[in-house]
Amino acid sequence: MLQFALLIVIGFFVGLFVISMGGGGGAIYLGVLTAVFNLAPASAAATSIVTALPSLAIGSWLYYRQGQINFHLGNTMLISAIPSVIIGALIAPFIPTKLYNLIIGLILFVLGVQVLYKLKANSRTQNPHSSKVLPLIFGAISGLMVGVAGLSGGGPITAGLLLMGASMIQASATSSYVLICMSIIGALTHLSGGQIDWSVGICLMAGSIIGAAIAPKLMKKFAVGNGAVVLKVIMGVLLIFMGIKTFLKSSRR
């Protein structure tokens, strides 16, 4: 009983964090499921993707009701993200883990530095500037992260939107929309594999749904003015931390 309660609490905070920051929950779920609940990596990855899907759906719907999703940028990202998920899944067995961690670590680190630099240069930009290439690049990076490693891929999407001038709430909303489309593909793949631990996943799912339902309301209230600056700093620092951690993993192998 205590374990189930702990799963619900963890799911609540992860759901709140993912919808507020536009992603990043895949790594958290994987860490919790493998380190705390001792699930095998394959089972943890499958459970993580399926668990995150309902919270992403609810968060995206609530953001849509607020009119915060930029469908033009989101759909442009999906044009490259969805094929990249499929390609990543196909080439994953042939990519050395050390090389993958090195490349992804550097990408996340650079994105984090750019988010912080962009914040310093201009923290008032609210409308994303038009670009035909950048959304495709960030979508492809995100898709490869999902396809190759089973991560959420939210970091590059949110960072890319921020670098293109989106506000924090627009970036979180659009990222949630992009991630739900990619997660559906990942969930269908893992459902056919039968490696999902439903006893763990349902409890995490229940908590994450509650967190996801609260997050858009909190973002609408706090992601303005100084609050938006704080959230962008957190996002930049988190990307740098994830990049360093991933890079160090490659050096230890």
Helix-strand layout with pairing:
Elements: H1 2-21, H2 25-36, H3 41-66, H4 71-91, H5 97-121, H6 134-149, H7 154-163, H8 168-193, H9 198-222, H10 226-252
Helix pairs in contact: 1-8, 1-9, 2-3, 3-8, 3-9, 4-6, 4-8, 5-7, 5-10, 6-7, 7-8
What's the mean pLDDT score?
77
Global outline: globular
Total helix count?
10
Q: Which series of helices and strands comes N to C?
A: HHHHHHHHHH
The radius of gyration over CA amounts to: 17 Å
Strand content: under 5%
Residue runs with pLDDT of under 50 for 5 or more positions: none
* N→C terminal distance: 38 Å
Secondary structure class reads mainly alpha
In short:
With 253 residues, the chain is mostly helical.
Task: Write a concise keyword list for the protein shown above.
253 residues, mainly alpha, 10 helices, globular
Describe this structure as you would to a colleague.
It is a single chain. The chain has 253 residues and is mostly helical. It has ten helices and no strands. Helix 1 (2-21) packs across helix 9 (198-222) and helix 5 (97-121) runs antiparallel to helix 10 (226-252). The longest helix is centred in the C-terminal third of the chain and has 27 residues, at 226-252. The mean pLDDT is 77.
